[in-house]
Amino acid sequence: MLLYIGFAVLLMNLVFFLAKWFAPESELLNSFKKTSHFWWTQFVLLLLSLTIIAGHFYGLSKAQWYTSPMFEKESQLYVGEKNGPAILHESFPFAERPFESEIIIPGSGDGKEALLSPVSESGETIEPFALTMEEGRSPLIVTFPEEGQWRVDVEYDGSERGSIVLEVK
User: Fold this and answer.
1) DSSP tag of 69
2) Which residues contact 14 (CB under 8 A, 6 or more apart)?
3) Of 11, 96, 158, 164, which is most buried with the most CB atoms under 10 A?
């Protein structure tokens, strides 16, 4: 949404410039008392649009580290996406302790492997490991070496299925 607003403000800036070049005596430009007011308006509009557009991309870069939402399925609580990979939430994961749970990947077939690649927000990684899926589910045991935000990237059948972001305490 911010991207659209930023480009709309940038478009207003373009309209003012086109009016300055092609219709310098127009009502639009006569509304400015001094020429310097026109240029200050252009500067402020350009600065505003660039700030809004930069805010959009800053938010996108941070979005990958927001903790995944929880949802209920078959009277159990999961962390992840309803139509994507999710981890059964029975307890919180703690640093340097084995975290035992179950992962579900909708649409996965029996006997096929899913590749999980955990990475922390600070950049630490755990060696990617494979799980064999049975009826779309597989037991999961992983030990996170440090606390903080951890993203588990899930790849199945050669394509990335999504990510699950967990808060490790």
Assistant:
1) P
2) none
3) 164
